[in-house]
Amino acid sequence: MENNLVVxxxxxxxxxxxxxxxxxxxxxxxxxAAFFMAWVVEPxxxxxxxxxxxxxxxxxxxxxxxxxxxxxxxxxxxVSELDxxxxxxxxxxxxxxxxxxEGAVATPGNVAGIFELHKQLGSIPIRELANQAIxxxxxxxxxxxxxxxxxxxxxxxxxKAYKNDNxxxxxxxxxxxxxxxxxxxxxxxxxxxxxxGKSAFYEGEIAQKFIQNQICNGGHxxxxxxxxxxxxxxxxxxxxxxxxKLLLNPFPSIGGAxxxxxxxxxxxxxxxxxxxxxxxxxxxxxxxQNSALKISKIENxxxxxxxxxxxxxxxxxxxxAVADKWGNAxxxxxxxxxxAGVQIPQTQILLxxxxxxxxxxxxxxxxxxxxxxxxxxMSPSIVIDENKNPILVTGSSGAGRIPMAIFSxxxxxxxxxxxxxxxxxxxxxxxxxxxxxxxxxxxxxxxEISNCEVQEWTDNSMFFGGANSISKxxxxxxGAVDNRRExxxx
Length: 490
Prior knowledge:
The protein starts with a strand and ends with a strand. The model is unreliable at 296-300 (pLDDT under 50). The chain folds into 2 domains: 14-234 and 337-360, no CATH class; 237-313 and 379-489, Glutamine Phosphoribosylpyrophosphate, subunit 1, domain 1 (4-Layer Sandwich). It is built from 16 helices and 24 strands. Helix content is 33%, strand content 21%. The protein has a 7-stranded antiparallel β-sheet, with helices on one face. It has a 6-stranded antiparallel β-sheet with strand order 11-12-17-18-22-23. Strands 19-20-21 form a 3-stranded mixed β-sheet. Helix 4 (126-139) runs antiparallel to helix 7 and helix 11 (255-263) runs parallel beside helix 15.
């Protein structure tokens, strides 16, 4: 008999979803509750100021990809008028440049996305689905070690976003793990939003405050951007894989296409690699990733997209997966980028910096076309069997490493028949031009790899993503948190 299950990047996100499932809600109700909670407890990765995707598979075997990613502005303001500037983040072993400011903000889609999910598939009033998030924001919660680390990496943006009453500071020092944090203004925002509906965000007082800041302080967006934003319901990109099918994020996003290209070589795993994480596995991973960048019509877009996104070490993205006992399943991936260093006044909502993301703009900053849905490497993914039943729901954070992280989980499950915990937490490889990143755990000798520089990682790293996943073992769902980050199976 099928069971309810959720896995996410934060224990409170998972618990919010589990409570809804236990009360009779379906997987989509639970996902909405989880998403609201993620806006509170994973605020630098998910929030009303960002965008994302949900891959949905219903008990009636209906497949939908909800695209609520960020949209480029309708009007492109002269560069000389923009609040758009670089900042440097120190990762310890190296530094990285990101671009932030009002001029880096694209139209956010997460609010529209959560309401469209509810409209299409929800069964419980949206107010009830937000209650846990509202109460948590109001009462406060304990900062986890991983979130504290992310706050540390994004400290510059967090300090710039809040002029007064910065919830991330205590006596002007950044809060640490085990510190309590609360968001009273965000609680009020969620309360208002779930009473008034999405128009409260896209047309009402909140939108007016947001747009006033944009107009006065060097941003592109106008009220027309907010009023015209629409969630796009897409048909997932379908890729056959022996007797299975992959349901992936379609264009204009690149992540799903990248996974589909990688999967072209899937049969080689059955034919050549007899053991996971063996020398043959290393050789196949290298060959396939290199070859995948050189085939098909998407080569130019794919190569330029990956070259820009591979260097992003932060990957400020969260992913969760939910399945219920009736046969419904959903994977949802969302991001605010690194954050623009600005908020919507009196809401504590951090805004995205998608127009400052080099990975999303392979032709350079300010090269975007007006009023266009941005592409992304994010690809919440579902695998269905020959009977069209979902057997794996996965997805990942990790910028340019997202496709390979997801593909690794799929290979580990379907080619090597590994249980989901080993499939998710086994070592990964990422090929970046002439540099190969290899996590500890592969059977290989560095001397055996020629013509490439090898970077060995002694510990599993968030660089390789965070592929929280659920999988069928017999009739029941089981889950795994990616230990490169943190989370909870519930």
